[in-house]
Amino acid sequence: MDRVRKKKFWNTQRIAIFAGSSALIAFIVYQLFFSDKRSKLNVEAEKLTVSSVSTGSFDEFIVVTGVVQPLKIIRLDAIVGGYVREKIVEGGSMVTQGQVLLKLENQNLKLNFLQSETEASRLVNDLQNTRQQLKVARFNIRRTLNELEFKIDQAKDIYERNQKLFKDKVIPESDFLRSKRDYELLVKQKEIETESQIYQEENAKMQIGQLEGTLLRTQRNVDLWRQTLDNLVVKAPVGGLLSSIDVEVGSNISQGQNIGQIDDLNGFKMRVAIDEHYVSRIFVGLGGSFEFNGKDNPLTITRIYPEVKNGRFEVDMSFPKGTPEGIKRGQSTPIRLELGKAEKAVLLPVGGFFSDTGGNWVYVLDNSGKRAIKRNITLGRKNPEYYEVLEGLQTGEKVITSSYANFGDKEVLELK
């Protein structure tokens, strides 16, 4: 007789369904609560630049370009204008002090010089004539005074004799008074002639003094015109290299126009252009260095030109330990210009990431080296090699320092 078999609840099918449902629920829970929801991007590791964060000495410096120039550059400016009659020395030649470089011609200057000489000659003649007239006047006055003294002596004798005769009542009173008047008239006339002599003497001296002063000024004027004519011959004020002379025969030169320059080759300096961003941090005495012939050569700022052109200003730097042997005028070289003292800091190598993040965040590799995670950081100072890390990174960590331009806003990079 057949028996009814009781049907089992956990059959194979139900077990399979339950297991599948459990797995699905577990997957959903994991996705909802435990899975990494950050945005990811797969990138090729070979195309990335990965740098290590390190601790070391942070040297705050900038790299600028310096050009070797002579220690002294003497500008040749035309003292007087004119057209070039003869060009004697070409640019690039060595010259000695006083050597004639070129000759100018200016007819107006020559005419003014001749007129000045003529005026000086006229004044010399006038001065000689005035002195001669003074001598003649002195002789005439002396002769007149001599004659008056003779007449006074005669009149005095007559007056004194008539005075006695009148007292003795030998002659009438009219004769006595007439002799007295004649005598007194001659005495007064002598006083007038003496005063006239003094006046004429003083007047003649004044005229001579005026003529002498005018003549002196005129002679100085003549000397000035002569020196001006001498300046038509342009000479080298110092010895050195005539690096340029920008004139040709027949060309017209204005007064004050620059016509060339002479380089003093007894020493050199560096002329350096610096970005205006650093103008407040540059001062006389600031140091720098450059490499030449396999040696590190120190430099010191000696002069600052504050005028800014095209966003840059210039400084002069000297060689405190002497000019390196073999250096040439016009040679350019990179210079390491120190802006501050070296300090210990956490360092991150410079890279293209900064232009994409502004230094506010970077991708940091995890321990596996297969994943890079976005992390906020804070950077401080910068030099051409490193950024100073203030917050967010530790020594030994690996950071992607190449450009982030193709990563968008992804938070995790998967390195393949």
Automatic annotation (TrEMBL):
<dbReference type="Pfam" id="PF25967">
    <property type="entry name" value="RND-MFP_C"/>
</dbReference>
<keyword id="KW-0472">Membrane</keyword>
<keyword id="KW-0175">Coiled coil</keyword>
<dbReference type="InterPro" id="IPR006143">
    <property type="entry name" value="RND_pump_MFP"/>
</dbReference>
<dbReference type="InterPro" id="IPR050465">
    <property type="entry name" value="UPF0194_transport"/>
</dbReference>
<dbReference type="InterPro" id="IPR058627">
    <property type="entry name" value="MdtA-like_C"/>
</dbReference>
<keyword id="KW-1133">Transmembrane helix</keyword>
<dbReference type="GO" id="GO:0022857">
    <property type="term" value="F:transmembrane transporter activity"/>
</dbReference>
<dbReference type="GO" id="GO:0030313">
    <property type="term" value="C:cell envelope"/>
</dbReference>
<dbReference type="GO" id="GO:0016020">
    <property type="term" value="C:membrane"/>
</dbReference>
<keyword id="KW-0812">Transmembrane</keyword>
<protein>
    <submittedName>
        <fullName>Efflux transporter periplasmic adaptor subunit</fullName>
    </submittedName>
</protein>
<feature type="domain" description="Multidrug resistance protein MdtA-like C-terminal permuted SH3">
    <location>
        <begin position="345"/>
        <end position="402"/>
    </location>
</feature>
<feature type="transmembrane region" description="Helical">
    <location>
        <begin position="15"/>
        <end position="34"/>
    </location>
</feature>
<comment type="similarity">
    <text>Belongs to the membrane fusion protein (MFP) (TC 8.A.1) family.</text>
</comment>
